[in-house]
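haha ok so turns out i had the wrong file open the whole time. this is the CORRECT one, sorry everyone. sequence first:
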Amino acid sequence: MPDKEHNTSCFSASINRRSFVKWSSLATGTLLGPGVLISCRNKANEKAELPKGEKIIRTGCPAHNCGGKCLLKVYVSDGIITRIETDDRQKDDISDPQLRACIRGRSYRKRQYYPDRLKHPLLRTGQRGKGKFKRISWDEAYDIMQSNPWLHLK
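then structure:
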C-alpha cells in the first residue's frame, strides 16, 4: 500500500464546514469589497437635484403596530408619494442615533396606494361579521359619531 501524502496546500481535497465558510467568506469579501466601499461614499456633500415639482417631506413613520416613529424622507410630486427613503442624518451617536425605518415603514407607499384600501366611510347594514356595508358620506359618518355617546372622541 502506498503511503498517503498529506496535502498541505490551502485547497486540500478534504474540506470541512469551517474551512468552507472561511474560504467562501474570504472570496466574497475580495470580490465585493471594492464595490461596497465605492457605494458607501459620503453622499451628504453631493447635492442631488430634484425633478421639477418634486419636494422632500421629512416625517415620522406612520406604520401601525410600531411605536418607533422612525424618520422618513418622503418624496412627493403633485401630491403623490414617488419614493421613500430612511433617516440620512450624518450624526449617529448614543445621544442622537439614526432611526432607520424597517421594511414596514419603507413600504408605506404601497399601503397608501393599495387599490383595496378603504377610502370612504362605511356603515354596517347586516349582522356583525357578515361583511354587509353601505357607503355613506363623511357628513353622515360625523353625525353618527356625534350622536352615539360611545363614539365620542376626547
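The chain is about 25% helix and 20% strand.
again sry for the mixup
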